[in-house]
Design brief:
By secondary structure, the protein is of the alpha/beta class. It has three domains: about 160 residues, no CATH class; about 90 residues, Elongation Factor Tu (Ef-tu), domain 3; about 140 residues, 3-Layer(aba) Sandwich (Rossmann fold). Helices cover about 50% and strands about 15% of the residues.
């Protein structure tokens, strides 16, 4: 049973590496959000296997040889090949498992959570040496060859996708910051320029993992494209919700950037209708804005429902006005009428806004032909859960509901 747990553990870890590699034959069809959820659930299954594998081996061999558990552990460490390497690998994995537990994860910054995951690759290398020298593999050369080839295939795919792809993108396009524009009190748009941007292909609604080549901003973070492909610039819009995003506002023009992607399946590729409903909440307007822009202007039939706290929290209001006349802004807090008087240019937004919550009644009132539209939903997780549930209760076909849910 201990040896079986070890084989299951080795296979599950390889599957984890495949999931985080986001291979091109899997990610576009499934979507990164589903890959991440499967990765997370599989991670919780791997934790017990990490404990069972050595524990069952120690207990089983101790019973077989009639020795104490402590003595059996010492015998295994001294006599079995590469057990010491496996022990080091085990110790490296423990912080990753602990940092992923919900009660701990929510207290950690992205960087503090990400660092233990980087040590996992060293742990995998040490564990692989241990596996190849195990009884199941070392006595059968063809099995050893298969296991080594399998590891080579998985890890080469990981290196190509997670390391090689961003470096290749940078070598081709030399992404750098052209300018940073403030969209609201806590949202900025970063305009990236570079070489041959017409050959940097992505679809509206997708996102990239971005590393800015500046001190403290090397850790990749995901940001959606807020403008459709145009061959002139790439625009990423960022809301200040942590140290990384707050510091991004201070980056000077000319700062280089590494882009891993494009990623995600939140696109019109699987649309079945020629009419659309776009539902956005907060910074979720970022990919929605790009989607609206990407649609054929002559055939564009789009209703946009955009929920925010106040008018000051609305992003791209004037751009959305130019893209579609059927905008509805749902504000959860009363507007300051004095602000409208002081800024007459806001009157368009005020005239097309209403107060309250974006709910099922709002959908029925503002979009009576809801069932005839493809619906794209993006926003905070609670808002998305409520909207998707409302759409299903209104009997919108599942094939017409599009979303990617990251939390």
């Amino acid at each position: 049973m201990g040896r079986l747990a070890g084989l299951l553990l080795g296979s599950a870890v390889l599957l984890q590496v495949i999931l985080v590699s986001r291979p091109p034959w899997l990610e576009p069809a499934v979507g990164c959000d589903r890959l991440f959820r499967l990765h997370r659930y599989l991670g919780f299954a791997i934790g017990p296997l990490f404990l069972l594998h050595p524990s069952l081996l120690i207990v089983g061999n101790a019973r077989r040889h009639h020795v104490a558990l402590g003595q059996q552990f010492m015998d295994l460490a001294e006599d079995w090949p590469h057990v010491r390497l496996a022990t080091i690998a085990f110790l490296l994995v423990v912080p990753t498992i602990l940092s992923s537990l919900p009660m701990i994860r929510k207290r950690l910054s992205h960087e503090a959570w990400h660092l233990p995951h980087l040590t996992m690759y060293l742990a995998l290398g040490l564990a692989s040496l241990h596996q190849v020298n195990g009884a199941e593999l070392s006595s059968r050369p063809w099995v050893t060859g298969y296991w080594v080839a399998l590891h080579g295939f998985v890890f080469s795919g990981f290196v190509a996708r997670r390391i090689g792809r961003p470096l290749l993108n940078f070598a081709r396009h030399r992404f750098r910051i052209d300018r940073i524009v403030s969209e609201s009190d806590d949202v900025i748009s970063v305009y990236l320029t570079g070489r041959r941007l017409d050959r940097f292909t992505f679809r509206a609604g997708q996102y990239v993992n971005v590393s800015f080549l500046s001190k403290g901003l090397w850790t990749p973070h995901p940001f959606s494209f807020s403008a459709a492909p145009n061959g002139r610039f790439v625009r990423l819009s960022i809301k200040a919700v942590g140290d990384f995003t707050r510091r991004a506002r201070e980056l000077p023009p000319g700062t280089s950037a590494l882009l891993e992607g494009p990623l995600g399946a939140f696109t019109t590729r699987t649309s079945t209708r020629h009419k659309f409903l776009m539902v956005a909440g907060g910074i979720g307007i970022t990919p929605i804005r790009a989607l609206v822009e990407s649609l054929d202007p002559e055939r564009r039939d789009v209703v946009l429902l955009y929920a925010a706290k106040t008018r000051n929290d609305l992003v791209f209001a004037s751009e959305l006005r130019a893209l579609t006349a059927r905008c509805h802004f749902i504000l959860s807090r009363p507007s300051d009428t004095r602000a409208t008087a002081e800024h007459p240019s806001d009157s368009w937004t005020a005239d097309r806004s209403q107060h309250g919550r974006l709910d099922q009644n709002t959908l029925i009132t503002l979009v009576p032909d809801l069932k005839n539209r493809d619906v794209f939903v993006c926003g905070p997780p609670p808002m998305m859960t409520a909207m998707i549930g409302a759409l299903r209760r209104l009997q919108v076909p599942e094939s017409q509901i599009h979303y990617e849910q990251f939390s």
